[in-house]
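Question thread 4412

I'm putting together a teaching handout and wanted feedback from people who do this every day. The idea is simple: show students a protein as raw sequence, then show them the structure tokens that encode its fold, then repeat with a second protein so they can compare. Below is the first pair exactly as I plan to print it.
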Amino acid sequence: MKRPGKSLMEMLLLISILTVIMSLVATTLVAVFKTDRQIRQDLDQQTALARLGSKFRADAHAAAACQVGVECELTLADGRVIRYSAKDRKITREVRRGNSVEHRDAFLLPATATARFDLPAQSQGHLVRLSIQPAENSDRAYLTPVRPAIIDAAIGLGRRPEATP
């Protein structure tokens, strides 16, 4: 005579199989969420670099003069000064007229990024460069990787008259 119920061994086997399946699902979900977070951070970084590059080039093209040190100051013909500074995980763009700030932008970078402004020697003062590179010891698995970028911009390109033949 066959019993209609399940034996204790059958129930233990079923519980063991379900436990293995649930642990595989949980591990897969953790990996998917981690990958999603990394992709979002990389996309945010790409977007910030694209916006920064566009603004930086447009400002340099309109500039009449450029001074580079720890910060980059671009002086426009109309008297405005655009100051780029890099600190605390971000690059700040500040448009000033006299002592008042007309506009301020911030471009976020990964925590391990370093930014530097310089005037390349071979450009004879006609180019300004913004270099974004990973800091030392930034290759750890849990840190957001830095997308290296070099943004070169011609100073005064929008102001120069075209040569006549």
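The second pair follows. I'd like the answer to focus on this one:
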Amino acid sequence: MYRKLVMVAITGLVAALIVPAALAAKPTIQRIPFELHYVNTACGFPVQLDAVGTIVDISYTDELGNFHDFEAAPQFKQTMTNIATGKKLVVNIAGPADFTFGADGSFTEVGTGNSTWNGGDPRTLGATPGIFLSKGRFVFSISASGVKSWTINGTVTNLCPQLA
């Protein structure tokens, strides 16, 4: 009887460990060509932004209902051109970044490497206008209740002075 009880307990434990993993979706892997062309005025003067490359995208939903999306963009470049002067700047924005859309409505982005922020300084959550380049590890998150936060272990540079 004791032996049978131990076997049932072990079987239940193994099933409890395996079932959640089985409920998680298999990852989807895609290579997505990407092009973005538009005029940005965040520097106080018009800048033509051209981002071109291929995104390697790996996404899945975990057993808790959280959607995960990992993106890397080898060879991804953003060209910025001051329309008035013709001055150009090209930056590598290969990333990568890992996005988590929580089942509770939260959102987290963890990035490493180079990323651009075309809508303003990420340290002020966009309150300071400009086009910024971050280098290093950053974490941007929005809690389920809407509270935003941003931290970086690296540098953030305003690219507007280089384009002026």
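Top answer:
Good format. For the second protein you could add a caption like this: Strands lie at 28-40, 47-61, 67-72, 77-82, 88-92, 95-101, 107-117, 132-142, 148-158. The longest helix spans residues 2-23.
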